[in-house]
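User: Could you write out the 3D structure of this protein bound to NAP? I've included everything you need below.
Assistant: Certainly. Input first, then the structure.
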Amino acid sequence: MDRTVVLITGCSSGIGLHLALRLASDPSRSFKDPHLLPEPPVYATLRDLRAQGPLWEAARARGCPPGSLETLQLDVRDADSVAAARARVTEGRVDVLVCNAGRGLLGPLEVHTAGAVGSVLDVNVTGTVRTLQAFLPDMKRRRSGRILVTGSMGGLMGLPFNAVYCASKFAIEGLCESLAVLLPPFGVHVSLIECGPVRTAFLEKQEGVPGGALDGADAETRVLFSCYQRHLERIFREAAQDPEEVTEVFLAALRAPRPALRYFSTESFLPLAHLRLADPSGCSYVAAMHRAVFADEPVEEATASDRGDPGLRAPPGARQ
Ligand SMILES: NC(=O)c1ccc[n+]([C@@H]2O[C@H](COP(=O)([O-])OP(=O)(O)OC[C@H]3O[C@@H](n4cnc5c(N)ncnc54)[C@H](OP(=O)(O)O)[C@@H]3O)[C@@H](O)[C@H]2O)c1
């Protein structure tokens, strides 16, 4: 019987790096059948192989056995790069594909350059599609495979000043859910690992300058953006998870005999997600999220009377 071959995108830092190490260093290889040792390496792929230093340093520090990890160049924006990485997997197949590569984009919508918007959509949406197109046909042919995709609570609910990022992660929800409906007869399972805030390089590595050229936004929006930034800092301070914790959720999905479509790294944001579903008009969610982010500002209660007219008010400090 064949041994499990794992390939992960976006392993230069953060969740991808920690997941690659977790799988490579797992002495029991407990996510796999213990009878199938020795294992092939975990294929940790990076957009730019010049950035592989921290991965190898961390692998040494963690005591990953020699041969347990192999790096490959894979830029999800480039179909040739994805195909070349696939061709370099010596086992000739990938059993577990982790689509993890992603980019953030933060700030008022009107200040984003077309290039930044295109790039985020290309990496997060088209990049995931490209990667799936490269590996899925073989999984279907072999009638076996697991696909894990790093999702986000920003793919389940809209977040202010994250409109393009949320659009990309909402797209990933539709992509994965659609495939999950189709693929069971092929023995292929798709799971989204829905992450809340995770302490990684994500915010530093986001596309362009954080917030963009803010002088392109009106004064009221700039005040609201400052308010949002304070909220974001607080959320990261109080609720962010370490990537090590999040990798355990990937492991849970890998170990599941019948994997679910969604796994959540934290339950902290589930009430908001429920609220979205409970009131399909969206009014309750919009009001609650506005209140949560711009907390010191009075926001009308989300009641039935709000529907069609959320009546959200800008903070007094934002008025000109
Ligand atoms: N951190 C959070 O709070 C959070 C929350 C929810 C979801 N997520 C999701 O988690 C995933 C991983 O992010 P992270 O938090 O671990 O942040 P990260 O440390 O910035 O990792 C992102 C990874 O994606 C890679 N990447 C970017 N563009 C790429 C491309 N064109 N081709 C291949 N790889 C590319 C980056 O490589 P380079 O270093 O070469 O750019 C990096 O390795 C993303 O999909 C993100 O949306 C993160």
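The first strand starts at residue 6 and ends at 8.
User: Perfect, thank you.
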